[in-house]
Design brief:
alpha+beta; five-stranded mixed beta sheet; four-stranded antiparallel beta sheet; 4 helices; 13 strands; flat
Length: 271
């Protein structure tokens, strides 16, 4: 028989037979509340620890990947130039078929250390450089001369159609202070060698005045003047010569004055 859900009391009020027990009232906590809160706290701490580990595992590869990317990016960046070239990427030659012609390039050390430079060419039998290499102090510059034999044209080609496959390469190497230049420096320190520029050949019409031709003439004249100055012997520093083979000897003059004074004093004493 089903239990009645509601009945009237003696006082006529309606009572509920299914009231919540006193231990499950709103204000009273259930007997398992402390254990439940402890387990929930432990569960929260465990979850937080797991989240921290997951966060670290996510961040750590990101850091490693960032450093790896940075390293790769640095390795892919072009090396900083140590030399400034003028012209920067070309060598101008007067077009004179069947003759040896000259070009020039200015080289300046723009770094804060001594730098060795070296020329290379794809045609060593028909081209050479003067000087082929050297060492420049910080801020020092020079004009190098490049010699090339111009082959006669084929099939009556015009100047505008002439294209030379010959290329020149300038390399640099940082060195410690002043030293004598030897080409073996670039072989001993291959990892530190930097390719400054690859220069391509451009022919100019020697009969046609252009700014490039005028600049080439000035650079060649500067290179020749520097070469002549290096050929002159250094001036000798020594005693000043008067007449032919006569050297001013201050000590000799002092000695003569001293002897003359001694003779005068001897004459006075004898009197």
């Amino acid at each position: 028989m089903a239990v009645e859900a509601e009945k009237f009391g003696s006082d006529g009020k309606l009572w509920s037979l299914c009231k919540r027990p006193f231990w499950q009232s709103r204000n009273a906590a259930p007997p398992y509340s402390s254990a439940s809160s402890s387990s929930s706290n432990l569960s929260s701490m465990h979850n937080a620890h797991q989240l921290t580990r997951i966060h670290e595992s996510v961040e750590r590869p990101a850091l490693y990947s960032g450093s790896t990317v940075s390293y790769v990016a640095k390795s892919l960046l072009p090396a900083r130039r140590r030399l400034r070239l003028d012209p920067p990427n070309k060598l101008f030659f007067p077009y004179e078929p069947g003759k040896q012609v000259k070009s020039a390039v200015g080289i300046k050390n723009t770094s804060k250390s001594h730098v060795a430079f070296k020329f290379q060419t794809t045609a060593p039998k028909s081209c050479y450089m003067r000087p082929p290499g050297g060492i420049l102090a910080p801020g020092e510059s020079l004009v190098a001369t490049v010699f090339k034999f111009v082959e006669p044209p084929e099939n009556n080609e015009k100047l505008v159609d002439q294209k030379s496959r010959v290329k020149f390469k300038i390399m640099s190497l940082k060195v410690k202070g002043e030293m004598d230049y030897v080409p073996e420096l670039f072989e001993e320190q291959k990892e530190q060698v930097v390719v400054e520029q690859v220069l391509r050949v451009v022919f100019l019409d020697p009969e046609r005045p252009t700014l490039a031709m005028e600049k080439l003439k000035r650079q060649l004249a500067e290179a020749e003047a520097a070469l002549e100055s290096r050929k002159k012997p250094p001036e000798e520093v020594g005693p000043r010569i008067v007449g032919e083979g006569l050297v001013i000897d201050e000590w000799k003059e002092r000695r003569e004055r001293y002897l003359a004074q001694q003779q005068v004093e001897g004459v006075v004493d004898s009197m």
